[in-house]
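Consider the following input, taken from an annotated entry for Beta-lactamase-inhibitor-like, PepSY-like (Arcicella rosea).
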Amino acid sequence: MKKILFVVALAFTSILTSCEESLDLGQQNQNETTDAASAAKVSAVIKQDYPTATQLVVTTIDSNKVYGCDFLVNGVAHEATVSVAGKILSTYEIKADTTKTALIDAIKLYLETNYKGYKLEKVAIGKDADGKVSYKILIEFNDKKITLLFDATGTILATFIEPKGQKPDPKQSPKTYTVVLSELPANIQSQLSGYEFVRALVKTNSDGKKTYFVVAKIGDVLYEITFDNAGVLKNKNAVKLQVPKLEAKYLKETELPQVIKDYLSANYAAWKFEKGVVLVKDTIIDSYTIVVVKEGKFITLSFDGKGKFISVLEPKSPTVPKIEDKSIVANDLPQAIKDYLNKVYVGWIFVKGSVSLKNDVAQAYLVLITFGTDKYYVYFDKDGNFVAAKKDK
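Applying the prediction step yields:
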């Protein structure tokens, strides 16, 4: 078994470790008053993608550029950002019940590494304008509220920290939205010359000032760069992209974890071990793939690093097509066959016929006719096209 993994190192300082601000997560942002016409336009855009949306509250994030919208869908809180042109830039579904929300392994590892003992409060799963999945996580750590943004792979995008002991103020809570390189201010674009642009986020504060978070690369080095409202460079972290060490080892039956053996015994009685492989990533077991034999069939099963069942591939019995010849009468003949016989065997008389069927679908026709004092077998394909004729002796 082979896996191709390219993971950004997780144990590094995030984009905003020094930023003492909070990020809105399911709370109404009221940075600016939104005029009725803009609010109606944004609401209409949301309604196109979420026809059952209710309690829509539209706010201005970036004047005449980006709006925020908080709403409910079947009682579930959502938030979105919408451009002035009516394009949805991002949407998030707020999952308040964290006990029923499964985070991907990369995010869990990042949180456990950097915020050991954290308390998970809220999770929002969403997507950007290109349909790329992203995660917004709210945790409590050392009496601080911290919101973290991750991409679909679990790579950290940004971190927002609320000062210790300060309660969140919904009216001051900023939101972020994504932008492409061409949408960044010209002086920031010029500072990125020589970099390979990856992504960028913009956060607008309650005073209208913006902070730009840019991720860019030079070679195999990833840079996290922060600019202020004037485009002045405030922070830059360099992180070398690392490819984890992957090793596939052959597995003996005696090395199978007991949890896997228990699963096999419960679901594949009298199974017999054939072979197995364990994938180790940076000395940590990533997954197991094993092949067992049951009743003469080879069955391939996959388990995660803790022995939890993932998937199974069982050979299916080959499907034998149903083949049969069925007798037919003259009226059952396709019109194309009748037309041919009328043209070539003028005055023909039907004696008998049959159709060859494969899974009840016609494949060929055989017709015995009388023509004058002779009899002929005439063959046709499934569409009624002439194939051959043979005189009956």
